[in-house]
């Protein structure tokens, strides 16, 4: 995948921050995926929390899942 451009609004300054983003695509085994949803959820929440992301997005089956509030440790 070529580099992609992203942007977000800083909630403190309300300025638009532009940055390069990394898109990750993967193909999965549907049965294994379903059996491990709780692990994927835990990973996405940990990723957002530990990297101080304002939002983590996961797309699956043409649906976009946006996570803005992360589970505590």
Description:
The chain has a domain at 24-73. It is 27% helix and 30% strand. The N and C termini lie far apart (33 Å). It has helices at 30-35, 37-50; strands at 4-9, 16-21, 56-60, 63-67. It is of the alpha+beta class.
List the helices and strands and how they pair.
Elements: E1 4-9, E2 16-21, H1 30-35, H2 37-50, E3 56-60, E4 63-67
Antiparallel strand pairs: 1-2, 3-4
Which strand-content bin applies to the residues? 25-35%
Rounded to an integer in angstroms, the radius of gyration calculated over CA atoms is 14 Å
- Please, how many helices? 2
Categorize the overall geometry. Answer: globular
- Unreliable spans are none
Judged by helices, strands and strand pairing, the structural class is: alpha+beta
Total beta-strand segments = 4
Percent helix range: 25-40%
Distance between the termini: 33 Å
The biggest sheet, with number of strands, parallel, antiparallel or mixed sense and barrel status, is: 2 strands, antiparallel
**Numbering strands along the chain, what is their spatial order in the largest sheet?**
1-2
Q: What is the average per-residue confidence, as pLDDT, rounded to a whole number?
A: 90
H-E string: EEHHEE
């Amino acid at each position: 995948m070529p580099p992609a451009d992203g942007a977000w609004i800083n909630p403190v300054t309300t300025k638009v921050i532009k940055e390069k983003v990394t898109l990750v695509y993967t193909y999965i085994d549907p049965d294994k995926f379903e059996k491990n949803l709780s692990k994927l959820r835990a990973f996405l929440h940990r990723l957002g929390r530990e990297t101080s992301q304002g939002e983590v997005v996961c797309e699956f089956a043409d649906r976009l899942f946006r996570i803005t509030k992360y589970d505590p440790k």
